[in-house]
Design brief:
six-stranded antiparallel sheet, about 260 residues, elongated, alpha+beta
Length: about 260
């Protein structure tokens, strides 16, 4: 899956072609002036697949808010009619000939990826521990951790470095165990409405899970109902949050070499 570049500075002669996505070729059309620098977004195709591009006079592309927003807006507009293969932010080809080479060299891979995500959208689902102090919550939820902590503090002194390491490792082990168990539980329900599910790495200590779900366009309401069903067994110490629809970033693997 393509990852956003922190900064792309590529010197090109003349006007380059900034690439937003790959889509099935349905004839040349444009999406209006919604691209980077308010450029006209249009397609360049070969009869089977097409690149969604806009002209870019500057060879310097920075991940500024307005540029990232423009990139996402193009993907959002595309998603209304087709499921695109989103390109990494900052992908710039020299000219139409370079685009033609990309489409030719990668056509079979693009067609396979387009078939994989056809008529699908990506939905995100996060679950977090909604508690003031995650360690204290685990002490209350896991007697073995509470017993270990109380034993270390029994003499009333400060913990030694070895004791702190032992306590920390026990907490981390239980944290990962609960994450795995709860994610299995939720994922079993979400699979009833998802074609594919990918587990992304948790970004904060309080995050239980971060799922990307590939959902059929017509099943978004089923997805929302499944989220409610999955959340029902959990008490108020847990919070669920879902978002989307998005282009299927987590289910696309494009390695485009320019």
């Amino acid at each position: 899956m393509p990852q956003p570049n922190k900064e792309v500075e590529k010197e090109t002669a003349g006007v380059g072609r900034y690439i937003y996505a790959i889509v099935p070729d349905q004839g040349q059309h444009d999406l209006g002036n919604i691209g980077l620098d308010e450029g006209l977004v249009y397609t360049i195709g070969n009869g089977r697949v097409a690149a969604v591009v806009s002209d870019l006079a500057s060879g310097r592309i920075r991940p500024q808010r307005r540029n990232l927003a423009a990139h996402q807006e193009v993907l959002k507009q595309l998603l209304r009619d087709v499921t695109p293969l989103p390109a990494a932010f900052g992908l710039l080809a020299d000219d139409d000939a370079a685009i033609a080479r990309i489409l030719k060299d990668n056509q079979d891979a693009f067609l396979g990826q387009l078939e994989r995500v056809s008529d699908g959208v990506e939905m995100g689902l996060r679950m977090t521990w909604d508690v003031p102090n995650i360690f204290e919550y685990f002490v209350g939820a896991h007697p073995e951790l509470q017993e270990l902590r109380d034993d270390f503090f029994r003499d009333g002194g400060n913990l030694t470095q070895d004791q702190m390491i032992t306590l920390g490792r026990s907490f981390e082990r239980l944290l990962e165990q609960d994450r795995e168990d709860f994610t299995d539980q939720v994922e079993a329900i979400m699979r009833t409405c998802s074609r594919e599910i990918k587990r992304n790495k948790c970004r904060t200590e309080k995050e239980v899970m971060n799922l990307a779900c590939l959902v059929k366009r017509g099943d978004q309401e089923r997805f929302e109902q499944a989220v409610l069903q999955a959340a029902r067994p959990f008490d108020n110490n847990f919070a669920f949050d879902f978002n989307g629809p998005w282009a299927p970033h987590n289910f696309v693997e494009m390695d485009i070499k320019l």
